[in-house]
Structure formats: structure tokens, C-alpha cells
Amino acid sequence: MRTSEKIVVWSSMRPVERALLDTLLHEFSTSYPQYRFVQLFYAPEEARTNFIISSLAGKGPALIHGANDNIGPFVELDVIQPLEAFFSKTELDSFLDSPFPANTYFKGHLFQIADRVGNHL
Known about the structure:
three-stranded parallel beta sheet; 4 helices; two-stranded antiparallel ribbon; D-Maltodextrin-Binding Protein, domain 2; single chain; 21% strand
């Protein structure tokens, strides 16, 4: 029997958004049963602090959904990696770039692809 890889996702999403993400993660898992997702909610400030602490200990989640102002500290502490290797140029070019880009680059590397823009936290 083949075991599935558990992928932990942390988010600060509102309940309706978390429900949608759960649905999408379930659909993905149905198509790719080798992956199993667990989504955990953290308030924005708790997410940042807990992510830094757990990542430095080698126990952080595979993915974190949160505000882009966390990118600087995450990069400086070397607890996130650039995303360029995970997407083709065509995929990256398909994201919004006007009136401002959806993709967040820092120190020459892509660290976030926004799913929304605004002060929504």
C-alpha cells in the first residue's frame, strides 16, 4: 500500500475562505492521492511568530498563506525559499501586473503570489 505525503498549510483566512481552500485541497487530493493536506488556522501575528519558531526548529508547515509584510523577516531568517523553480515563465506571466504586480519579489527572487491585494486582514 502506498502512503500519502502529509502537506501542512497554515493560513489566516476567514472561515468562508478556509472552507473553499479545504474543498480545493480535497479535490487536489482526489486527483493526486499521494498527497494529503492538513490546513491550520492562525491569527496573522500568531502565524508569523509560530512560523518563524517552528521553521527554525525544522518543524514548519510546507505552505503558509499570509500577508506579504512577513516576507522580509522570513527571507532574512532563511525560513522560506524562492518560488521561481515551481512555476514556468508562462504561468508567472499570467498573473496580474497592472496597476501593480501580484507577484512579490524580494532581493531578486519571487517569494509570494498574491491571491488578493488590499488591507483585508
